[in-house]
Fold this protein.
Amino acid sequence: MNLTFFDQFMSPQILGMPLIILALLMPSIIFPAPNNRWLTNRLTTLQVWTINLFTKQLMLPINKTGHKWAIILTSLMAMLLMTNLLGLLPYTFTPTTQLSMNMGLAIPMWLATVLTGLRNQLTTSLGHLLPEGTPTPLIPVLIIIETISLFIRPLALGVRLTANLTAGHLLIQLTSTAVLALLPTMTTLSLMTATILLLLTILELAVAMIQAYVFVLLLCLYLQENI
C-alpha cells in the first residue's frame, strides 16, 4: 500500500524512455506564440499582464543593477508555476516533486548569485561571513557557522519545494482513497471526507503557486546580497 502511494512520484516511461522531458516542456508548449493578433487576443493580453505583474513583484527588492536578471527569474517562476499547477491534474506527473530536478535548478542559480558577488564586490561578499562587532574569540566559530549556512541555502531551496509538493500530493491521494473506501459502507462520512478533499485541493493550488513564488523570491534576495 505504501509503495503504491509513492508510485505517483516515479517518472512515467513509454518503451523505456522517460517522459519527464515532455512534462518539463509542457509549460512552454501551452503558452501561445506571438502573432499579428498579439494585442487583441484576450489570452495573450492576460498572459503579458500576469508576467509583467510577477516581474515587478520579483524586482522590488533588487536594485537596478540586478534587473538584467529579470528575464531568467521570471521565466523560472513561470516554469515552476505551470509545472506545479499542471501536476495537480489527474493522471499527470509533477517533475518538481523530484529532489534531483529541484536541486538542479537551485544549485546553479544560487552559485551564479554567489559568483556574481565575488566578482563584483569581493570584500563585501566575504564580509557577510562575519557580522560587524563580533568578539575576537567567536570569530572562527561564526565564520564556520556562516559558511555552513551559506552552503545550506540551495539545499533548503530544493528540499522546501520538494517536501511541500510531495506532502500535498500524498495528502490528496490518501484522502481520495479514504473517500472511495468509505463510500459503500458509510456514505455520510464519505461525503464529509470528499468536502475535506475539495478544501485540500484548493489549499494545494495555493501551495503550488506560493512555493513557485517563494523559490524565485529567495533567489532574488540572495542576488540582492551580492550586487
User: Anything to note?
Assistant: The chain has eight helices and two strands. The CA atoms of residues 59 and 68 lie 10 Å apart. The first strand starts at residue 13 and ends at 14.
